[in-house]
Amino acid sequence: MTEWVALPDADAIAREACSRILHASAERPDPHRPFSLVLAGGTTPLATYRLLARDGDERPDWHLYYGDERCLPPEHPERNSRMVEQTGLTRLVGGHLPIPAELGPETAALRYTGLIMPALPFDLVLLGMGEDGHTASLFPGRQWPAGPVIPVHDAPKPPPERVSLSPTTLQACRHMLILVSGESKREALQAWRRGADLPVARVAACPQATVLAETALLEPAP
C-alpha cells in the first residue's frame, strides 16, 4: 500500500520532496481553491522549506498548516511554526495557519479543529519520523483521544505538552510524503518494514502515502 522511494541522502530527499510538492500544487483538482500543505518539523523537512523559499516565488494560493506543535510561546525557537518562519517560506504564501499551542493542549486542539475542517481533504501532508517511530506528536504506546486534532500530555520528548492532528486527519489528504533520513532512524525504519505497530506505520497505512528514505536505511545494518 505504501510506496517506498530510495534516495541517496538527505539533500536528495529534500529536493525530491520539493519537486513533488510543486507538482501536487500544479496538478490539484480545483485550482481555484488554495493549495493546502501540512508541514512537519525536523531537519529534512526544513531543508525542503528552504528550497521552496529559495527562489523567492510568491505563492498566494498556498495555505500552510501543521501536523503538530509544541506548547511553547509563539516566538520560541523550538516551535515548528517558528522554524518554518525562519526559512522565509511563510512570507511567500497567502495563508499561514499555525497551531495556537501556546493556549494549552485542549484549547489549541479545539481552535485548530475549526481552522482545518474547511481545508479537508488536504492537498499534501508532509511528515517525518522519530527514532522511536513516532510521527507528528503521535508517540508509541499511547492511547490517542478521539477528535480531528488531539491534545498530547506527558510526551516522552520535551516539551511534554503538545498538539497533534489525529491519524485519520493526517490521512485525509490527496498526497502524503514521509521523509526519513539519518542513521539514528535505521532501527525504527527497519521495524516498520517488518510490520511493527508504530505510529508512523499506522498513519502511512493509506494508498496515497509515499516514503522518501535514504537508500542506506532501507538496507540491513552491516
Key traits:
7 helices; alpha/beta; single chain; 3-stranded antiparallel beta sheet; about 220 residues; Rossmann fold
Explain the overall architecture:
By secondary structure, the chain is of the alpha/beta class. It has a single domain, classed as Rossmann fold (3-Layer(aba) Sandwich). Helix content is 29%, strand content 24%. It contains 7 helices and 10 strands. The protein has helices spanning 10-26, 43-54, 80-85, 105-116, 167-171, 186-193, 199-203; strands at residues 3-7, 35-39, 59-66, 68-70, 93-96, 122-128, 149-152, 162-165, 173-180, 209-214. The strands form 2 sheets. A 7-stranded parallel sheet has the order 1-10-9-6-2-3-5. A 3-stranded antiparallel sheet has the order 4-8-7. Helix 2 links the parallel strand 2 (35-39) and strand 3. Helix 1 packs across helix 2. The longest helix has 17 residues, at 10-26. It is globular and about 45 Å long. 44% of the residues are buried.
Entry summary:
The protein has 222 residues and is of the alpha/beta class. It has helices spanning 10-26, 43-54, 80-85, 105-116, 167-171, 186-193, 199-203, and strands at residues 3-7, 35-39, 59-66, 68-70, 93-96, 122-128, 149-152, 162-165, 173-180, 209-214.
Record the strand order, biggest sheet.
1-10-9-6-2-3-5
Please write the string of helix (H) and strand (E) elements. EHEHEEHEHEEEHEHHE
Strand content: 15-25%
Counting structural domains, the number is 1
CATH architecture: 3-Layer(aba) Sandwich
- Supply the helix-strand structural class: alpha/beta
* Spans of at least 5 consecutive residues with low confidence: none
- Kindly provide the name of the CATH class: Alpha Beta
- The total strand number stands at 10
The number of helices is 7
